[in-house]
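Hi support team,

I submitted a single chain yesterday and got back a structure, but I'm not sure I'm reading the token output correctly. Could someone confirm the output below corresponds to the sequence I sent? I've pasted both exactly as they appear in my results page.

Thanks,
R.
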Amino acid sequence: MGSENVLGLTATNGAASEDGRVPPRADLAAYGHGGFVTDYEARIDMNALREERLARARAALAASDFDALLTWKDENVRFLTGLRAQLIQGKTALLNGCLLTEDHLVLFVSGGEIDRVRLVMPWIEEVHAVPIMEARGLVAGAVAEVIAPALGRLGLASGSLGLDELSYAQVLELGRALPELALGDGDALMQGVRAVKSDAELAVMQEASAIAEAVTASAIAAIGPGVREYDVVAEAMHTLYRLGGEMAHLATPFVASGEHMAPPNRFSSDKLIREGDLVFIDIGAMWNGYFSDMGRTVICGEPSRRQQEVFTAVHASLAAATEAMRPGNTNDDVAAAVRTAGGRYGLDDSFLSLFIGHGVGIGANEPPYVGEDLPGAETVELKVGMTMAIEPLIWLPGERGGAGVRLEDTVLVAEGGGVALTRTSFDRALLLEE
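Hi R., thanks for writing in. Yes, this is the structure output for that exact sequence:
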């Protein structure tokens, strides 16, 4: 007998077929099996995952109007090549690039990475050193001497090239070096490729979620009167790195206490946590390139009635959003569920003026968005395998100890309603009896 995983697939019991082959397990994405390589349990095949991602991107490229893609966003380069490189804050789209055609892959990396790439990434057939793509002269030299010749060797001196995120200097120099090459938006293509996760990708996200839960637990355990927000972050980040996490979901880990959540200060500080403060934690984790995003609000000491009311409204909003995360619904349906739940507590006008959900995966924050009210917001139909961080936040002014609450889970779109990949429990002291 088999059992169903979160995607509705039936896991085998390992019984061999008539030819002696054991069918693949379908429960890979059901939970985190562990981050180590083992000989006693089938786990994530990272080489197969990378090849599957590349095949998806090439299929999308073949169906597009582009002859090739030139990507510089860190998450797109990671998706296509598996490159994990040193990242400089604020420069992540200026460091490493990838040229993709239907049958060729070229990697452009910092000179500090090239020897390591040649040694440990044998699947990369062609790699070239480039500078940080910022100083105009260096950009011109890299395009003229490295990037344009690589395009030319692949017959791409003309045609159409999709780009994602790169400096305007690069765009100008590409136009100068290859005037017959049409440049277009390739980032939307990559967003589409990345939106629906495979079982192997979900398995990586399960491991990231397990680490994110441990990070959150360490942060919660550190809370007490006289502890600084920075202290909470320090304990959480120790756990993140101890368990093999690559980085937090945010470059500025978000721990805010008391009045710092009304309105939210979306970064940690030297503020002392005090008795009666609500404390919000949003740090998350990345593991093997994939993010898990989660947040919890807890109370230091005893809550006020108003704090409980806000928390209960947000808890109901998150539950309603998770239930609405089913195929056939849209991101707008999820936003409506959140606001309707908040409205039952008279707080539908008190949500933070920011989207209340976003895609998450190999990108920490990616389309589609839930509850985005700014011009140009898109309606997107949800599909099984999409993953989104749902993060309603309600805040009210004037409450001692703060009355700002956010609760956040990474949620998988699944038949019958969403499945939270993040499992950390909620502070029962803050929940009113229904």
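A quick pointer for reading it: DSSP finds ten helices and 18 strands in the chain. Let us know if anything else looks off.

Best,
Support desk
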